[in-house]
Amino acid sequence: MILTEEEGIYCVVFRLEKQTLFQIGRLGEQELLPGLYFYCGSAKGKGGISRRVNRHLKKDTKKFWHIDFLKEKVNPIRIWYLTSVERCECDLVQNLRIDPKVSYSMRGFGASDCTERCYSHLLYTPVANNLDDLLKQLQNRMPDCRQCLINQ
């Protein structure tokens, strides 16, 4: 898997196979349903997208962000990203939410410092969406969006 070290925004797509209850920092005990989860974030500074996403893919890191609690329970399957110093992860959130099958997951997840006041930076779909179609929809609105598959 090769990702750029440039700054930008990204979406890590995770799959959860079964209903799971667990603690997520200050958000408390949360229940997640089976399906696909989309975590949208930004990567600034040294190492850019590659460094940030690779941290999210490691299961055994210090719990600092909300995603550090979630990643222990889910399986990453894809990464979508754009190199940019101007856009924020809220752009990805809003463009993914245009699909009627994609909804917000838990309130405040990944958005505690969000200047756009997003409900959440974690999205969810219970159905087995065709991810290629969802990516094409996203690329229609954000043409520079690229994909990286994760070897499982």
SSE topology:
Layout lengths: L7 E9 L3 E5 L3 E5 L2 E9 L4 H10 L8 H5 L4 E9 L5 H9 L5 E2 L17 E4 L5 H11 L4 E4 L3
Antiparallel strand pairs: 1-4, 1-5, 2-3, 4-7, 5-8, 6-7
Total of DSSP H or I helical runs spanning 4+ residues: 4
Indicate the structural class.
alpha+beta
Radius of gyration: 14 Å
User: Tally of extended strands?
Assistant: 8
Which spans have pLDDT < 50 for at least 5 consecutive residues? none
Major sheet: 6 strands, antiparallel
Helix fraction by DSSP (H/I, runs of at least 4)? 10-25%
Give the CA-CA distance, first to last residue. 11 Å
How confident overall, as mean pLDDT?
89
Strand order of the largest sheet: 6-7-4-1-5-8
Oligomer: single chain
Order of helices and strands: EEEEHHEHEEHE
Number of domains: 1
In percent terms, what proportion of residues is strand? 25-35%
Shape: globular
